[in-house]
């Protein structure tokens, strides 16, 4: 254990040094190889695929082995302590030939030249011209000119609501704009005024993903939270339009959410299952959590529906944070060309169409296949097809500093503090972190 900790710490030093140095040797460019006779490629994938879409993995393996003559050894991973395991593998020189990682993890590895440059072969990946923007941007260099990681699949936040409670309040059609949403929520609130602790829309103060989305809806989605000229980050949280959007979120929180100002979203599914919440904003899969037989209320299954969070204009949802996974080839992989070829096959149209039955595919071209797979997918598909946003593409973004700064700011705003002032405080922390290499 001590050796692993030491290895991870050493790589962290290497990553920091690489990110700070302008003279770091560039990562090699990839070529796609089909010369695999007698070779075995090692692929790290998360158990999400093993549990959710093993057939997609098997089909990719079969095609790859037939076309290259190589064998595929998929090593299933879990998210717990994954960064430490990956750091250790990269530092020891025993890197796999291709890996999956969360799209919030990629920036530090790209900055350290830990991944092969895929820019020259990007055009050979199916649907690369229609990759989901926010997912694709997480795999690019800080200046956006080079591609080091390939989008794999995504998830988007939607509004999950009780059709029965809305219908009893006289709302029979889903809202399509923020004005309609506000009017509908007022009707639901009035119809349930005698229900203790009732929330027409429960908005936890620390759920910064949702709060930032409302700011993004007014501000625009270029450079959400902070933007870079390639060298220096400047903050956008204090842009008057962003503040205006956040105030819209704060008004909804004040008028329709009971409690929750100082907590995050981790308990909202269980709270909704108790019956006194008409709507929440969360990932589409949270419908299953609300109706879970053990921790939720399966009796609500027929009453829940999802829509993309309405925006100011009909047909233009509030921008959603697009989280998901990327795929990359480590710089020191034993078979980088074969690793890249596996990723090309694993993300081709056939595999992504099959994947679309289970998750949002990596490109807009195949979103109709995802939406057709299940009625509940329409909302997330609409969100992904609209404007989306992602965290600043920097190795210096951290959960412990920057996400906490946002959580604190929005929690304070929800309790009644001035939005512009609290966002300025958060922005100061975030910009300082992002520019820590300057």
UniProtKB/TrEMBL annotation:
InterPro entries: Bact_solute-bd_prot1, SBP. Keywords: Signal. It comes from the Bacteria. Residues 1-26 form the signal peptide. Pfam families: SBP_bac_1 (PF01547). This is Extracellular solute-binding protein.
């Amino acid at each position: 254990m001590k050796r692993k900790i030491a290895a991870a710490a050493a790589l962290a030093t290497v990553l920091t040094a690489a990110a700070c140095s302008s003279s770091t040797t560039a990562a090699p460019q990839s070529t796609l190889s089909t010369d695999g006779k007698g070779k075995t490629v090692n692929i790290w994938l998360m158990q999400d695929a093993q549990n959710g879409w093993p057939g997609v993995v098997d089909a990719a393996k079969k095609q790859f082995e037939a076309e290259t003559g190589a064998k595929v050894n998929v090593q299933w991973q879990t998210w717990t302590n994954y960064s430490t395991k990956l750091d250790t593998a990269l530092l020891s020189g025993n890197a796999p030939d291709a890996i999956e990682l969360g799209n919030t993890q990629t920036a530090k590895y790209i900055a350290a030249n830990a991944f092969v440059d895929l820019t020259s072969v990007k055009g050979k990946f199916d649907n690369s011209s229609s990759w989901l923007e926010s997912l694709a941007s997480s795999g690019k260099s800080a200046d956006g000119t080079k591609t080091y990681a390939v989008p794999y699949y995504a998830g988007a936040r939607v509004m999950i609501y009780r059709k029965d409670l809305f219908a009893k309040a006289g709302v029979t059609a889903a809202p399509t704009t923020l004005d309609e949403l506000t009017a509908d929520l007022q009707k639901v609130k009035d119809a349930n005024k005698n229900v203790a602790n009732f929330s027409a829309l429960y908005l936890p103060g620390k759920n910064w993903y949702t709060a930032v989305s409302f700011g993004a809806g007014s501000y625009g989605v270029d450079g959400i939270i902070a933007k870079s000229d390639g060298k220096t980050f400047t903050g956008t949280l204090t842009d008057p339009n962003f503040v205006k959007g956040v105030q819209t979120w704060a008004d909804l929180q004040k008028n329709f959410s009971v409690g929750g100002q100082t907590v995050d979203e981790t308990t909202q599914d269980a709270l909704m299952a108790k019956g006194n919440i008409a709507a929440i904003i969360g990932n589409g899969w949270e419908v299953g959590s609300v109706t879970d037989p053990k921790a939720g209320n399966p009796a609500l299954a027929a009453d829940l529906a999802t829509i993309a969070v309405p925006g100011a204009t009909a047909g233009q949802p509030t921008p959603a944070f697009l989280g998901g996974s990327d795929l990359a080839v480590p710089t020191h992989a034993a078979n980088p060309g074969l690793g890249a070829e596996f990723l090309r096959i694993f993300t081709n149209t056939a595999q992504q169409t099959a994947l679309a039955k289970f998750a949002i595919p990596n490109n807009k071209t195949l979103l109709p296949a995802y939406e057709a797979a299940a009625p509940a997918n329409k909302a997330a598909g609409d969100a992904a097809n609209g404007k989306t946003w992602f965290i600043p593409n920097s190795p210096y973004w951290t959960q412990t500093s920057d996400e906490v700064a946002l959580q604190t700011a929005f929690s304070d705003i929800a309790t009644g503090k001035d939005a512009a002032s609290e966002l300025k405080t958060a922005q100061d922390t975030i910009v300082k972190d992002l520019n820590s290499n300057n």
